[in-house]
Every structure is written in C-alpha cells, then in structure tokens.
Specification:
Layout (H helix, E strand, L loop, with lengths): L12 H7 L2 H9 L17 E5 L5 E4 L3 E2 L7 E2 L8 E6 L6 E6 L5 E7 L9 E5 L4 E5 L6
Antiparallel strand pairs: 1-2, 1-9, 3-4, 4-8, 5-6, 6-7, 7-8
Organism: Luteipulveratus mongoliensis
GO cellular component, one term: cytoplasm
Keywords: Metal-binding, Oxidoreductase, Zinc
Length: 142
C-alpha cells in the first residue's frame, strides 16, 4: 500500500495482520476484492452507520445505500467527504477511482460516475463488505 505515516491511524503490516482476519487484511491492506454477491452487507437494508473495519472511522450511512445489483454494497455518497480518500487507480489495465478510508488508508472499493442510477449524486461507491462494519441504529423506545 502507501506510506502509512500520512494517516492519523498508522500501524505496521504486522500490527494490521494481528488485528484483521486474512481476508480483511487482503482487501483492506492489499487492495484485494471480495467475490461478488458474497459479502454480508450486499443486500442488507438494516438502518445504521457503516464504519471502516480496520480503524472504526465512520464512512457511510444506510440512507445513502442503494441496490445496484453489482454484487457489492453500493452507496451514493460518503457520510462526509473528508472520511474517504479518492485515488486514481490504473491497475488491471483500467482507469478507475479507488476509495480509501481517510483515517487509516485502508482500501474500501471504487467509485463510479455516470452509470445512470437514479441517485442524487450519480455516483456509485462500490464497497467491499469485508471493509465495513455496520452499527445498527437503535430502535426508538415506545
């Protein structure tokens, strides 16, 4: 990945390996991708806040999640623009925009524009479930 000293949450590869499962490390720290339609949050409609699985930084809210039928959870906007970092990605012979956690630099997925989804931003943040942790909203007391 990149020089981790540039992020507020900075750990060595060994420290990340101790904190994350092998699959989480592969996706978050080595910019891997989980298989489509296998992630725990792909189709969930649970209301709540999605945070970085590596460092806990808030990234997305359920009210911006939508069904794109692409195989990964999709959001049309982060909870705050400065919670994610967008980086040009020319790997695999393509030109894409990688999405990383701005707090720890972990790979989350990619963002795509102009695909014709009826969302307020015309963006699709295509995010690996294994990069996220969902904190369900509390149900209001009756």
């Amino acid at each position: 990945m990149t020089d981790q000293t540039a992020y507020p949450v900075s750990k060595s590869d060994q420290e990340w390996r101790e904190r994350l499962s092998a699959e989480e490390f592969h996706v978050l720290r080595e910019a891997g991708t989980e298989r489509p339609f296998t992630g725990e949050y792909t189709d969930t409609e649970t209301k709540g806040v999605y945070s970085c699985r590596a460092c806990g930084e808030e990234l997305f809210r359920s009210d911006t999640k939508f069904h794109s039928h692409c195989g990964w959870p999709s959001f049309y906007a982060p909870s705050a623009d400065d919670n994610v970092e967008l980086i040009e990605d020319r790997s695999m012979g393509m030109k894409r925009v990688e999405v990383r956690c701005a707090s720890c630099g972990s790979h989350l997925g990619h963002v795509f524009e102009g695909e014709g989804y009826a969302t307020p931003t015309d963006q699709r943040f295509c995010i690996n479930s294994v990069s996220l942790r969902l904190a369900q909203d509390e149900e209001p007391s009756a």
